[in-house]
């Protein structure tokens, strides 16, 4: 099983400058290759990795500054671009902006990387062009190194090793027959069908106020100035802490859920589409834009997509099965009688069925409906995602549409 190990680097001034230079070269190669691909597509032709790699070798003879970066790091950049274009489309792949993109590059040859432990807290790795670099030994590698990625976040440089830990996904979960449904929301990050609420505060009130002041300060500063760079760095340190807390929460929650349940059922939520900017109506172009922006921030703050990725990653170690179901009407359906009525959702937290009078927390009721839909999947062979979102579900009590 392949897994990642990330460590904080302790670079010298020369090594940090070289890492920044290599990252800038990889960014230039990415943008140039992307522009070439788009130009070919405009002409009705195609461009892929093989001819671009050959042209990169010729460009290194004409432009000596390209030789500063390792050859296989530049080739890996072209491979990553080729994969992104195949998966998302040439015109949907984003540029790597100098101001917004954090420098990163990958060494794909694991046999060229050597790692040694220097003591209880420190280790060192020998990377191409960089030589021996020290890093904080926060956890053992636990496997054979396949590749290494150097990146910068919040003013700090990190190295991530992709290792093969020789583990395999279990054929059977330790607790077969257990199942849980998860309802993700903007008030509580995740609510399970057993009534457990998983949530935490990712940013403190003091950090929120300081970030707001930094944003106001940034708006008054001149672009390209040294003070503006300091303000952006201070904002980056705050967002880095928030991101780390969110990642820790998702990993911890995913490990707890997958360790206790053989089946984990999620809503099929398209987070990217749900957080798209509002355009208003033809008569009122700006109508609802501010409200939609607030909803988008709440969704992104809770980390819906990151939690799903963490669950899928943790399921590899426990043998749990992740199932996604159609989210239509799960919050309006009574889990006891199956009656569907929007009026049953009295408030954000209260669900009171208008047919049988059953009362429950609204998120817990929705999570139970998702769990039942996931349990029905092996019998009917349908994830429930093929049904039209406008088609109401069949009532379990009457067998007919309500």
UniProtKB/TrEMBL annotation:
The keyword rRNA-binding does not apply. Keywords: DNA recombination, DNA-binding, Endonuclease, Hydrolase, Metal-binding, Nuclease, Transposition, Zinc. Residues 382-402 are annotated as: Disordered. Residues 1-43 form the Transposase putative helix-turn-helix domain. One of its GO terms (molecular function) is endonuclease activity. Residues 304-369 form the Cas12f1-like TNB domain. Residues 168-276 form the Probable transposase IS891/IS1136/IS1341 domain. InterPro entries: Cas12f1-like_TNB (IPR010095), Transposase (IPR001959), Transposase_put_HTH (IPR021027). In the C-terminal section; belongs to the transposase 35 family. This is RNA-guided endonuclease InsQ/TnpB family protein. The lineage of its organism: Bacteria, Bacillati, Actinomycetota, Actinomycetes, Kitasatosporales.
